[in-house]
Amino acid sequence: MPRDTAVLETARLRLRPRTVGDAEALHPAYADHVLMHWWSSGPHDTIEQTREQLAREVPEWRCWAITLKSDDTAIGFVAAGEKRQGNVSEIGYMLLRAHWGTGIAAEAVGRVIDQIFAEGQRRVFADTDPENAASRGLLERLGFRLEGILRAEWETHIGVRDTALYGLLREEWRGAA
Questions:
Q1: Is the confidence at residue 177, as pLDDT, over 90?
Q2: Using CA atoms, how far apart are residues 176 and 75, in angstroms rounded to an integer?
Q3: For 33-43, how does the pLDDT look when each residue is reduced to its tens digit (9 = 90+)?
Q4: Which of 15, 23, 70, 72 could form a disulfide with 64 if both were Cys (CB 3.0 to 4.6 A apart)?
Q5: 91: CB partners within 8 A, 6+ apart
Q6: Nearest-angstrom CA–CA distance, 82 and 78
Q7: Which residues 6+ apart lie within 8 Å of 98 measured at CB?
Q8: Which helix (H) or strand (E) covers residue 175, if one does?
Q9: What is the reported pLDDT for 1?
């Protein structure tokens, strides 16, 4: 059973539980053809698709909306799914394109990693398309190591894709912090 999605903060961000009410704010990201290119599903045509996506509850996943401390409007999210109870979590993230290149994604993902390791997890991993240079760069800046390429791992809206699997151990994170 996953832990609570507590409110988390950084110097400039607040991460709070993501809700269906965030659909309006996050729909521009889900509708963005560039941003959604590397996702397993294509861009959303309607806000109703975004509402449906946010309403789907997956019990082993927690999801935080990323907001600026000065404004509670969601500008992205970080999700963490416990894959092996008490030991290993997967992490994923999305950020509206207007905030790319600002360091917000690294700050938000880093804060969630802090939380996961503080809860006693020993490992966090992420998978991304090998051609998604921005996501791979973020993971590498945070200290994740490329652990392998899984061939033909995903069937997506752009075809069958490989995945680049990245991992980070708690003791490596402490060393980088």
A1: no
A2: 27
A3: 999 999 989 99
A4: 15
A5: 78, 79, 80, 81, 109, 112, 113, 116, 124, 125, 126
A6: 13
A7: 75
A8: helix 170-176
A9: 42
- What's the pLDDT at 168? 98
Residues forming a β-bridge with 84: 88
pLDDT tens for 5-54 read 889 999 999 999 999 999 999 999 999 999 999 998 999 999 999 999 99
**pLDDT attached to residue 2:** 53
* Measured distance CA(28)–CA(31) in Å, rounded: 5
> 3-state SS of 124-174?
EEEEECCCCHHHHHHHHHCCCEEEEEEEEEEEECCEEEEEEEEEEEHHHHH
Give the mean pLDDT of 117-139: 96
Is 27 buried (19+), middle (13-18) or exposed (0-12) by CB count in 10 A?
buried
Helix (H), strand (E) at residue 25: helix 23-30
- Sheet containing strand 88-95, edge to edge, reads 8-9, 13-17, 61-68, 71-84, 88-95, 123-128, 159-169, 145-156
If DSSP codes are grouped into helix, strand and coil, which group holds residue 52? helix
